[in-house]
Amino acid sequence: MIRRWLRDGEVRRVLQGVYIGTHVPDSPTVRARAVAAVVPDAVICGRTAAWLWGVTAAGDTGADGRPLPVEFVVPTITTPPRRSGCLGRSWTLEKGDITTVAGLTATTPQRTAADVGRSAGGEDAVVILDAFLRLRLVTRSQLVGAMVRFAGYAGVRGLAHAVRLADGRSAGADESRLRYALSGAGAPPPEPGWRVTSAAGRSVHRFGLAWPLLRLGVDVTAPRGDRAEACARPAGSDDAPPAIRVRRRHVAGQAWRVVECDPGVPTHDRDAVVARILRELRAAADAGARAA
Q1: CA 128, CA 115: separation in Å to the nearest integer?
Q2: Distance of CA 47 to the CA centre of its chain
Q3: What are the angstrom distances between the C-alpha of 263 and each of 135, 220, 267?
Q4: 129 vs 234, which has greater pLDDT?
Q5: 12: which strand partners?
Q6: Which tens digit of pLDDT belongs to each residue from 245-280?
Q7: Is residue 240 scored above 60 in pLDDT?
């Protein structure tokens, strides 16, 4: 009967031995429920657990476009079952590391953030930890505590680096990835999510990244403006592409120089964005030095 349903397109296989109606959209949650159905003592962990907690920045597909494997933990005395689409681990979990979310047994936000920070590494870890902080699932002190707890464990250096850079004021992956790239390029640390307020204390504008003393800001999702200085890239030049623009704006009576980027550009054309920001930082610093 199942073979007939598969042939007729009424169901699809999620995992070996687990099927679901084709009307149900695929998601990490659906795949995690499938694992729980065949591995009763499984504790969902890693990126899959992050997704369950609402951290969609953890992603649901890999670079090849295929669904990420469902990550789960079994007791250390048990050998993780090998199934296609799964990544089982034998870890020691303390009682406080386990809870219930979306009806599934999973690691707590603090343990999940620590595990992802150790395994993802680099900018992916920063993006995900930013999201955990932004959603207030964990605090910075809890992340620092995780660094101490896992001292000597594999991946703890990557976790420590990600914790140092993580900041919940970033609004999304574009801002997080751009901030990570700027840190590697030697740029002075920006203020994420910087809000300019009026004399009455009302928030007038939010910059994704800002250097307030230099009056330089970055808008990741800024629309094209009539006064935008389009930076067209001629063949063979290193100028910024049209998706990156620079203009002068007056915000709350202050003159700012703003680098505007279309959504997705800081991720897909990061080198160009970083080069443009560094150029503007140098120009702002030189102007300040001349004024002094």
Answers
A1: 11
A2: 11
A3: 21, 6, 9
A4: 129
A5: 20
A6: 898 999 888 899 999 988 888 888 889 999 999 999
A7: no
Q: Are 32 and 52 in contact (CB under 8 A)?
A: yes
Given a contact cutoff of 8 angstroms between Cβ atoms, the answer to whether 278 and 189 are in contact is no
DSSP per-residue codes, 38-94 = H-TT-EE-HHHHHHHTT-GGG-SB-TTSSBPPEEEEE-TTSPPP--TTEEEEE----
| Token code pair at residue 172 | 């999304």
- The pTM of this model reads 0.84
DSSP string for 209-258? EEEGGGTEEEETTPPP-TT-EE----TT--PPPTTEEEEEEEETTEEEEE
Q: Residue 193: what pLDDT?
A: 94
Please give the pLDDT value at position 291: 63
Q: What is the pLDDT of residue 79?
A: 72
The amino acid at 79: T
Mean pLDDT of 51-65: 87
The count of other CB atoms within 10 Å of the CB of residue 62 is 10
Domain positions in the chain are 2-169, 176-291
Distance of CA 200 to the CA centre of its chain: 34
Contact present, 108 and 46 (Cβ < 8 Å)? no
Per-residue three-class SS string for 158-199: HHHHHHHHCCCCCCCHHHHHHHHHHHHCCCCCCEEEEEEECC
Tokens 């403006």 belong to 225
Two structure tokens written together for 132: 């955990």
- Considering 14-18, 176-180, 221-225, the range whose residues carry the highest mean pLDDT is 176-180
Separation of CA 27 from chain center: 18
Q: Could you give the CA distance from residue 223 to residue 55 in angstroms, rounded to a whole number?
A: 27
Q: 220 and 263 in contact (C-beta within 8 Å)?
A: yes
Strand, helix or coil for residue 240: coil
